[in-house]
Amino acid sequence: MAQKPSIPKGTRDFTPEEVVKRNYLFDVMKQAFANFGFQPIETPSFENSDTLMGKYGDEGDRLIFKILNSGDFLKKVDETDYREKDYAKLTGQISEKALRYDLTVPFARYVVQHQNEITFPFKRYQMQPVWRADRPQKGRFREFYQCDADVVGSTSLWQEVELVQLYDTVFSKLGLEGATIKINNRKILSGLAEVIGAEEKLIDFTVALDKLDKIGSEGVKKEMQEKGISAEAITKIEPLLSTADSPSEKLQTIKGLLSASEVGKQGIAETEFIVNTIDQLKLKACSIEIDVTLARGLNYYTGAIFEVAAPEQVNMGSIGGGGRYDDLTGIFGLKNMSGVGISFGLDRIYLVMEELDLFPKTVSANTRVLFVNFGNEEALYAMQAISALREAGISAELYPDDAKMGKQMGYADKRNIPFAVLAGGSEMDAQTYTLKNMKSGEQQTLSLDRLIDSLK
C-alpha cells in the first residue's frame, strides 16, 4: 500500500478560498505601498551563504536553511573535519547557498549591486516568501510571506513617521483596529548598557531584554546574570521593566536614567520626534507605545525599532516589525547608506483577520454563475453567453458534462455558486436564458443583455 503523502512541518497547502483571502491582503498592501510612493522589486528565493550568514546574530544564523551543493557534495570535504564532525567547518564545504531568512539583507545586497541604476532615496516594497528553520507553532511557520517597505539613502526621521502611517493605513483599510505599534531605539538600548557598565555585552543585554514577554522579568534577570551582567547593573534598569506609563511619561523616566549618556539622549530625541509628530498627525486604527524592552535581537538595527502587536483580544505574536539600519549596506561594501524599513507578517495578519471575522463577505473564490450542460448544441449556445459574461467581468463557467440535472445543481450548491443558468432547447428557440437564484429558488427568463445586467 502506497504511503500517504505529506508536506514538511511548518509549511501549508492553501485552498482556493484561502488564496483569494491572501490575495485580498496582498492587494490592500500593494495599493498602500503604491500610494506612499514605494516601487516593487523581487530577489531570488536563495542567496549565496556568505550574503546571509553573520547578519542575524547567532540565533538567526541557526535558523537559516542551507542548501546542499549539487552532485557529490562530500567530494571536497576535508577528511579531518569529516571525522571530527565539525559542523561549522563542514557546512561551508558542503553548502554554498541558503534560502533567504528575510527580505532586508537581500534588499541590501540588491542596493549594492544596482547602486548605479537606482535613484536615491530609493523606496521599495517586496512581497515574497522567506524560510526559517524554526519550531512550528500557531502563527509561526517555516515558510511564510513577508511584505516589506524600505527607504534607503536618507537619514530623515520623516521616513520613520511615514512608515508608522503606512502601518496605520494598511490596518485601517483592513478594518483591523486595536493594533499597537511599539517603538524603541537601539541608541536607547546602547545608553542603558552604557550606564550600567555593560557596553561590551550589548547584544547579550538586548537579546535577554527582548524576551521579557516570553520569560518574564525574573527570566530576563537570570539570563543577564548568566551572560555576566552584574546584579547591581540589573537593579538599575529594573524600574523600566514594569512601567506601564504613557509614551511621554516613559520618555521622562528614560531621560532620568540616561542623563549621562550622549548616545542614549540621541535615541530619546529621535523617539520623541517620531512620537510627538505622530501625535499631531493622528492615527486611525493603531496606537503608539514606547517599549524599552523591544530589542528584536537582530544585529543590524541602529536607530528606531518597531514591532506591531495584534489587538488584545487575539492571542497572537507580533504582526509586523522593522527599524533603522544605518550601516547594513556597509557589510557589502557600500558605506554611508542609511536605511529604514518595516515588514508586515502576512500569515499572522491572515489568522487575526480570520479570528476577528474581518474579511469582507465579497472576498470569495466562487464562480458567480454556473451554466447547466444539456448537450453539445446547448453547451455551444451557453458558451456564447459565458464569453459575453466574462467580458463584462462576471465569473461564469459551464458544467463540463451533460450529467443529470441533480448532479449539476448539487455541484453548484457544494461550490456555493449563487446562480445557475438553464439554456436548453426552449431557451435557444427564444434566444433567452433562465436564471435561477440557488438560495431562494426564484427563476426568471432573460435576454442576454438583461442577464448580464442582473448578474452585475
Brief rundown of the structure:
By secondary structure, the protein is α+β, with helices and mostly antiparallel strands. The protein contains 18 helices and 16 strands.
Overview of the molecule:
43% of the residues lie in helices and 18% in strands. It is elongated. It is an alpha+beta fold and 456 residues long. The chain has helices spanning 16-35, 49-52, 57-62, 79-84, 87-94, 104-113, 158-174, 186-195, 202-209, 212-226, 231-242, 247-257, 262-281, 346-355, 376-391, 405-414, 425-430, 448-455, and strands at 39-40, 46-48, 66-67, 97-99, 122-131, 143-152, 179-185, 286-290, 304-309, 318-325, 339-345, 369-371, 396-398, 419-422, 433-437, 443-446. An eight-stranded mixed β-sheet has the order 1-5-6-11-10-9-7-8. The model has no long low-confidence stretch (mean pLDDT 89). The protein folds into two domains: 16-64 and 101-355, BirA Bifunctional Protein, domain 2, CATH 3.30.930.10; 369-455, 3-Layer(aba) Sandwich (Rossmann fold), CATH 3.40.50.800. It contains 18 helices and 16 strands. Helix 7 (158-174) packs across helix 13 (262-281) and helix 10 packs antiparallel against helix 11. The longest helix has 20 residues, at 16-35.
